[in-house]
Specification:
Helix content is 37%, strand content 5%. The chain is mainly alpha-helical. It has a three-stranded mixed beta sheet.
Length: 317
């Protein structure tokens, strides 16, 4: 940012993710929120795993779901989805979405299974556009049968090098069953909640530790008397800094040059002559003779021009 670079969308996304990591909703805070909502007449349910499966199982045709997760479109029981996006709320009717894509409701669920979601990745080089064309060509009324037909198609068999079967996505979207948290084994693990401050006191304690370290760095920047047998090198600086695990009192094998000093070679390296040059012999330089009579005068440019013009024949002119 300080070098005059342009701001892009990914810069704000990285900042938003970093800010969200600082906030962790502890279990006690969630239980207090649930009890508060029950006192105000709301029906609250404690889910053992993710709430998407319980919401889809309890959803009726006249109900609507408010969620920012697009995976809710893959459940066959969800008829209306209200999705917040950039400060606004958008309403999606699943029947209208399916008809716009020229798919049935069962085909839309199969599309959610084979596409990238929270439980499985899509097959390499097969995105939503290609998957829609493949599923649209299949004839089946059951979403699980559509997924099996999708895996048997020639275009998918060639690309499916890892032999994916989408078992986790089938259990969630079609069977609405989740015995444990389904995680893609290729997906890197997320940060554990223990590494994030759980409340204000933990965050304040972490801030004080950083502040104490900063005060130590400021003291080390100023002049100080080093202990006996140690160099006055500031260990918090990168310049003029030796190895971190070097035992004190022992001589260093590698000498570090001072700041703003020129680099010099410690030893002269003589390379052998290449084989291609060994076939040539080096001749000594000829010394000029001191006798002026032996020195021949070289012709000037004007005299050579006259000689050349004199040798030309008339027919050449």
């Amino acid at each position: 940012m300080g070098k005059g670079q342009k701001l892009h969308k990914n810069h704000f996304q990285d900042a938003t993710k970093s800010i969200n990591k600082c906030f962790y909703w502890s279990l006690e805070a969630r239980q207090d929120f649930a009890s508060y909502m029950r006192e105000n007449g709301w029906s609250m349910r404690l889910c053992q795993f993710e709430a998407d499966v319980d919401i889809a199982s309890d959803c009726r045709p006249e109900d609507f779901v408010i969620s920012s997760d697009s995976d809710m479109m893959g459940y066959g029981t969800v008829g209306t989805l209200i999705r917040p996006f950039r400060g606004k709320f958008y309403r999606y009717e699943m029947e209208d979405v399916a008809s716009l894509l020229r798919l049935s409701r069962q085909q839309l669920t199969a599309l959610a299974v084979v596409s990238k979601n929270d439980y499985n990745k899509n097959i390499s080089s097969l995105g939503p556009k290609t998957n829609i064309k493949i599923i649209r060509s299949l004839d089946a009324s059951d979403p699980e049968a559509l997924v099996k037909g999708y895996l048997k198609s020639d275009q998918v068999v060639v690309k499916n090098e890892k032999k994916q079967e989408f078992k986790a996505a089938i259990n969630v979207f079609i069977k609405r069953r989740q015995s444990k948290r389904e995680v893609d084994p290729e997906q890197p693990p997320t940060e554990s909640p223990q590494e994030v401050p759980r409340d204000y006191e933990d965050l304040l304690l972490r801030f004080r530790r950083i502040q104490e370290q900063l005060d130590i760095n400021k003291q080390m920047d100023g002049p100080f008397d080093p202990p006996d047998g140690q160099s006055p090198t500031n260990k918090f600086k990168t310049t003029d800094k030796g190895p971190a695990c070097h035992p004190p009192g022992q001589p260093r094998r590698r000498k570090r040059r001072k700041r703003y000093s020129f680099k010099t070679r410690t030893r002269i390296i003589e390379h052998p002559q290449p084989d291609t040059l060994k076939m040539y012999a080096r001749k000594p330089l000829k010394e000029k003779s001191e006798n002026p009579e032996l020195q021949k005068e070289e012709p000037t440019s004007s005299s050579t021009h006259k000689k050349r013009s004199a040798t030309l024949t008339p027919w050449a002119l």
